[in-house]
Amino acid sequence: MADLSLPQYADIEKAHRRIGSYVRRTPVLTSSYFNRLTGGELFFKCENFQKVGAFKFRGACNAVMSLLKSEGEKGIITHSSGNHAQAVALAARMNGYQATIVMPENAPKVKVNAVREYGAEIVFCESTIQARDETAQKIIAETGATFIHPYNHPAVISGQGTAAKELLEEHPDLDIIMAPVGGGGLISGTAITAKHLNPKTRVIGAEPERADDAYRSFHSGKIEPVLRTDTVADGLRTSLGELTFQVIHTHLDDIVTVSEESIIRDMRAVWERMKIIIEPSCSVPLSAILDKKVDVMGKKVGIILTGGNVDLENLPW
Amino acid sequence: MADLSLPQYADIEKAHRRIGSYVRRTPVLTSSYFNRLTGGELFFKCENFQKVGAFKFRGACNAVMSLLKSEGEKGIITHSSGNHAQAVALAARMNGYQATIVMPENAPKVKVNAVREYGAEIVFCESTIQARDETAQKIIAETGATFIHPYNHPAVISGQGTAAKELLEEHPDLDIIMAPVGGGGLISGTAITAKHLNPKTRVIGAEPERADDAYRSFHSGKIEPVLRTDTVADGLRTSLGELTFQVIHTHLDDIVTVSEESIIRDMRAVWERMKIIIEPSCSVPLSAILDKKVDVMGKKVGIILTGGNVDLENLPW
Questions:
Q1: In chain B, what is the greatest distance between 2 CA atoms, to the nearest angstrom?
Q2: More reliable by pLDDT, B179 or A81
Q3: Quick check: A272 contacting B, CB < 8 Å?
């Protein structure tokens, strides 16, 4: 049975030892263009180069590898149509387990195929939260498979924290570390890591104005409902969970929001200037800096680039 | 006055010491997807992350920094509408010299602006080889500026060789090293480096079928004229020079050619799988491998990715 208490830094260290040879140690890139533009020194941790093209593989891998063999052999299950689905599928396959991914029947074919490529079984359901929960619960009841939540899960949070651990090992003196906030798994793991390794590092989350539940929750001190999710940053449409809210509430220094226009502008600027492919979600922290929501003048700033899975036929500019 | 003899490995070492703190030491990426697909172990040297977005900065920087101060102060001149123009402009500015770039009056505005951003003066001329030569010669006669050829220039070749030097320092046991062939500066520097550091490393050039002058020159043993240049790989439309032909003739193990379809297919595959932005020219060596023109089964293969300057409004798929 999974431990549902809040992860500590020791859990992130343990996760890193566990998954270290399975995940890619992604490079940290810099850009003289963005340094000049912002007056800071920016360090981009390239999780767009991670396996399955997103940081999500770290958390999924840690969650799968934390299972007892007897648990894993009953199968792994999750519901997602995004990067977490691919991450769980690959992590399960690498450990010799069967993964089942519950997907809405209207999921894009390209995402369905990606999950299938990693050897997972796909079960389609109606495109409602209730339908996917019920479908997953039914399979769990039948098979005893273990459900891996995309973010509200201690082992997932610990796995995501290994990205910041690697970044801070290479650049221990960051003044600020930033990541986007969707369900909050990444920023939670990042905050636990940063506050342990260097308590002076400010941890700041960034969110689209059009999916600002974490921003509102952080500032009100309680979990606020999602009001709208019509943002181009498709990785950030989810709302916080109990665990991630607790970490955010305890450890974050700030959460700021940015406009759709800025997200698209800066996604494109990263493509053009840094020659790397990032998802819209990635540019949210950078937009916060470029729009002066975060002052980085003279500061060293780590930014976790979350993923690079985009549809090249359907670019937002 | 520039030395016009063939560069040796000692010149590449000297170049690296000279430009080392000016150029970016670009990362070497790997891809489990392409390894699985090819049966080899591929190491991609990411010169798309180089300053100005292309390896060209290495050669231009070395050529500019090889000048006496009294020469540099009379100015630097070249004609190019591509990456070499930006490279010379930036290298000149970093050394406090004035650069003049002769460009055809129909050069794309985006390229003109990029060169201007680096502080170079632009002189427009008619879009013929004769006009740009005459324009450059006129300015040289008036100012005493030094002309820096994009590839048929020993210091440029030596500068380009530093990319392979860095790659082989990190991966000394490559069985094969590959680069695309345009004017031949990069493959020449690569070959001189590789054959010195590890004579067992096979050096293979790759060219588009639609701009195959180096392929024909290599196989006939004399410089063959360019017959057509209508390839999507816009960096590879130039023909060999005397110096680069000599190096290629002496040091290369093979030159192979690939189709337009393969170039576009594999450019896109690199974007999708490796999440990096590469120019069409970059994928030419990879296409040669994927189309089985080069056998890499069980081999370690270095590939120099040459640049990442593409027009995002005008993608070839």
A1: 58
A2: B179
A3: yes
Q: Do A276 and B276 touch (CB under 8 A)?
A: yes
**Dihedral angle, C-alpha B31, B33, B37, B41, nearest 10 °:** 30
Beta strand B28-29 with B41-46: parallel, antiparallel or unpaired?
Answer: antiparallel
What is the per-residue pLDDT across B161-192, written as a single tens digit (0 to 9) for each? 999 999 999 999 999 999 999 999 999 999 99
Is A278 within 8 Å of A270 (Cβ atoms)? yes
Q: Domain residues of chain B, as ranges?
A: 9-54+153-305, 57-147
Whether chain B has a CB inside 8 Å of the CB on A308: the answer is yes
Kindly state whether A277 is in contact with chain B, defined as any CB-CB distance less than 8 angstroms. yes
> pLDDT band for position A1 (50/70/90)?
very low
Nearest to B49 among A271, A275, A315 (CB): A275
Tokens, residue B63: 């050529």
Among partner residues B268, B275, B312, which is closest to A308 by beta-carbon distance? Answer: B275
Rounded average pLDDT over A188-210: 97
Chain B interface includes A36 (CB < 8 A)? no
Determine, for residues A315 and B312 on separate chains, whether the beta-carbon distance falls below 8 Å.
Answer: yes
Quote the pLDDT of residue A139: 97
The answer regarding whether domain B9-54+153-305 maps to CATH 3.40.30.10 reads no
A280 shares contact with chain B (CB less than 8 Å): no
Q: What is the mean pLDDT of residues A4-30?
A: 95
Question: A158 is written with which tokens?
Answer: 């610990």
Instruction: Judge whether residue B156 has pLDDT over 70.
Output: yes
The answer to whether domain A9-54+153-305 and domain A57-147 are alike in fold is yes
Chain B contact probe: residue of A57, A275, A283, A310 with most B CBs at under 10 A: A275
Give the residue from chain A lying closest to B269, CA to CA. Answer: A312
Q: State whether residue A216 is helix, strand or coil.
A: helix
pLDDT band with cut points at 50, 70 and 90 for residue B1: very low
- Average model confidence (pLDDT) for chain A? 95
* Average pLDDT value for chain B: 95
What's the fold here for domain A57-147?
Answer: Rossmann fold (3.40.50)
Is the Cβ of A317 closer than 8 Å to some Cβ of chain B? yes
Compare all CA atoms of chain B with the CA of A52 and give the residue at the minimum distance: B273
pLDDT higher than threshold 70 for residue B2: no
Q: What mean pLDDT do residues A30-55 have?
A: 97
- Strand, helix or coil for residue A96: coil
Q: What strands lie across the sheet with A254-258, from one edge to the other?
A: A28-29, A41-46, A300-305, A176-180, A202-208, A254-258
Q: Are A32 and B51 within 8 A, CB to CB?
A: yes
- Give the whole-angstrom CA distance, residue B278 versus residue B179: 14
φ/ψ (deg, to 5) at B132? -70, -35
Nearest CA in chain A to B310: A272
